Amino acid sequence: MEDSVKLNILQELIQINTVNGHEQPAAEYLKQVLSDHGIESDLIALAAGRTNLVAEVGEHDGPVLALAGHLDTVDVGDSNKWQHNPFCGQVIDDAIYGRGSVDMKGGLAAMVNTLIELKEAGLPKHGKVRLLATVDEEIGGLGSLELTRQGLVRDVDAMIVGEATTNRLEYAHSGSFDYRVKSYGHLAHSSDPSLGINAVANLARFFEYERHAFDDVKASPSLGSLIHSITVFHGGRQLNSIPDYAYLEGNVRTIPEFDNTAVQNRLQTLVDRLNAEMDGQFELEVVASFMPMATDPADQFVSLVQQSYQTVAGQSLPLAVSHGATDASRYILDEHRFPIVEWGPGREEMSHQVDESLSVAEYLQADQVYLQIAKDFFGDD
Ligand SMILES: [Zn+2]
Fold first, then answer.
1. Residue-wise pLDDT tens digits, 71-80
2. pLDDT band at 20 (very low <50, low <70, confident <90, very high)
3. In the predicted model, what is the mean pLDDT of the chain?
4. Right CATH for 3-173+293-378 from 3.50.50.60, 2.30.110.10, 3.40.50.300, 3.40.630.10
5. CB neighbours of 186 closer than 8 A, spacing ≥ 6?
6. CATH 3.30.70.360 residue spans of the chain
7. How far, in Å, CA of 58 to CA of 60, rounded?
8. Span 175-290: which CATH code?
């Protein structure tokens, strides 16, 4: 594939605004690009304007290698702060600018390029490469959840998630657990608080217990300590009323050794205990839950990817972990286990930034890396 063609695909993809909730035009665009190169793909609708895309090259028998990316981006924020129009896809020197260039239209376009190159070379000879392009990765992970439900990772033997990883190979990432604890009391005039139940005071007591609820959790050998923060505390409406409602919200960065289920159970136990001890009522609500992902760094797929990268880039690819969740949090909900690693073009810290940009050289190399991984994985020359 010519560099200009590859660059054009990424530019056009950036020019389609896919701020979370409007991914369908991008899915349709990629379907067209793939179809122009003789590759069939399916659009899997999730909601109005929201469509996943799944495409395959190769043979029906044999192992399955999945390339996973997402179509949505985060919001632009204050567009006045951008020097380059976030939907321009402009190339200046070695950089291509725009929302999603790094997170992760660059990685996704590179995966599309790889599929085209595989198709043109008649590869893989035994097995297939499946592209999964999802909606909603940046908010709820609904796209990857739906693909998992529909069994699209059931037969997968290994997966690469194409998020930017700053020239490192990520084999594990923390999960994320967002929750709300609601405290219900009873309204009364502040001149006679005994007639009421103070939801704020109760919640403050809950807070004191909860602060230390995870102190005993041992650190993960790969991901380090579980990280717990109470980030919102809200209650009361009127200065002279005993408040009948308050809530707090928090986030836990979960680890495989103490995952989202364990966190939820522990919070629920605390809620149940304090409900039994106190007047008033607490209620736990799960706002969002993304599981941690941890592939064994000794898994042979990890070293295969490192070697493939070395072959193409002529330099080593060090291992790393990250603390942000990805679509992998959904794909691991499938009942069978398979290795997942994250590698994609771009510097992770450029994600979600003003004037987000991706190195053109890195982008143009990325499909070669994925191609080499596919060749090494299937044993094709
Ligand atoms: Zn991303």
1. 999 999 998 9
2. confident
3. 96
4. 3.40.630.10
5. 195, 196, 197, 242, 244, 280
6. 175-290
7. 7
8. 3.30.70.360
pLDDT of 92 > 90? The answer is yes
**8 Å CB contact between 71 and 163:** no
Tell me, in angstroms, the distance from the centre of ligand 1 to residue 93's CA: 24
The string of DSSP codes covering 179-243 is: EEEEEE-B-EETT-GGGSB-HHHHHHHHHHHHTTTTTTPPPBTTTBS-EEEEEEEEE-S-TTEE-
- Bridge partner list, 134: 70
For the chain, residues classed under CATH 3.40.630.10 are 3-173+293-378
Of residues 266 and 324, which shows the higher confidence score?
266
268 C-alpha vs ligand 1 centroid, how far in Å? 31
Centroid of ligand 1 to alpha carbon of 98 (angstroms): 14
Q: How far is the CA of 75 from the centre of ligand 1 (A)?
A: 12
Q: Under a CB-based contact definition with an 8 Å cutoff, are residues 116 and 37 in contact?
A: yes
Cα–Cα distance, 330 to 144 (Å, whole number): 6
50-58 and 41-47 strand pairing: antiparallel
- Cα pseudo-dihedral 1, 137, 40, 148, rounded to 10: 130
